Amino acid sequence: MASLGVGLQLIRKRGAGRSGAVERRNLLTVCRFSVKTLLDRSCFETIDDSSPEFVNFVSILEHILSHRLKGQTTWFGYESPRSFWDYIKAACTKVPHNCIRSIESMENVRSSRAKGRAWIRVVLMEKRLSEYMSFALRDYKTTRRFYEDGAIILGEEAGLLADTLIGLNTIDFSFCLKGEILDGTCPAVIDYTPYLKFTQSADSISSDEEEMRTLGSSGSENSTPDKTATAASIFTEQSNLVSKCKRFEQKYCMALEQKAYLEELVRLREAQLSEAMSHNKALQQSLADTHLTHTLEKEQLEYIILELQDQLTVMKNNDLRSRQELTTHLTNQWPSPDALDANAVALDTLLYRKNTGQWEEKSFQSLEQLSADMSLSQSSLAPSHTLSLEARPPHTQWPHKGKEETPSLRGLCGSLTSVASYKSLASLKSSECLASPATEISSPGVTPS
Length: 449
Known about the structure:
Elements: H1 2-42, H2 52-65, E1 72-73, E2 79-80, H3 84-91, H4 100-104, H5 112-126, H6 129-138, H7 140-146, H8 157-164, H9 208-217, H10 227-333, H11 337-351, H12 361-380, H13 409-413, H14 425-428
Antiparallel strand pairs: 1-2
Helix pairs in contact: 1-2, 3-5, 6-8, 11-12
């Protein structure tokens, strides 16, 4: 028996949980439908208290806010019923520029339910219903204190409800807060018929009228119909055929419109695709051209670098060769001191060699030979090509008259080692430096300038 009681209790709990879930889902679905109908109606006319869509929406919202609302406990332990206005008044006091004090001070609104209905209308005209609901749901402590477990306000669907109510901010409402509209004694009744719609499938051939006519005539098959019944049945069939044709025509027009829309959409997408493909090809061609140009420029720069390196190598070699030639030229420009001393002694001897009043022809020949030897010695710096004093034969006597051959004559002729006094023997043959045979050399101290 105990196990049977536990089983029944579990079944009851499961049934209660299922009924609560179905109730929450139904209220939220109908609330979304009512918001959509209000939005559709607002496109054609102004929403006021006489609008059936608005009356139905207010009833649905009252049921949602009153779902599993806790009662107020008195001193004696009894619970008195409570309205959702008590929750709104406690949870929305911190909303900036709220209308709670204004509603509390209204003279024609006495009951708690009437104040709640007045609050719904005021916040709809202010377009702040979603703001109030979001602010109240964030105060979870107050919400938990007013509602029991399983309430819509405590569930995850409450956030979706606040988001759904945002669409009402686009509607301009116009309400009158005076009169019998805010009577709190009238219960809120939801009308579900606007949201219940049966759509007949396209495969179904028989309509509702045919089914009703078939059901109505099924019991009188054995009876003989009269002419009036036959005419009525024929007229009914014709009207049914006409209605079917109209429905098929409407569906056909709708299908044609959808087909045209889809074809236009496909053409647009194909045009966009072709444009994108052409643009992609142009980008690929541009990328290929850029890559080719980059490759050519790279090869050209490499060739230029190699050519510059070759030119730099050639210039370095030429510079090194020029330096060597310059060094050799500067080194070979001046003869050695021994050769200069030998040339100076030979020049002294040739300048002051003379016979009794006449120059010997042999001396000029020796002078020309000495000049050639000097030129050769300047180019090769070989001391073997110079005419030295040691090279002449021994016991050679230079004829002279009245003068004694002394080494002092060397100093009178000047030193060939100095740059200022040195000149080639070819210049010494000129009339500027050498005395003619007709000229009397009076002094051995004359030096060439």
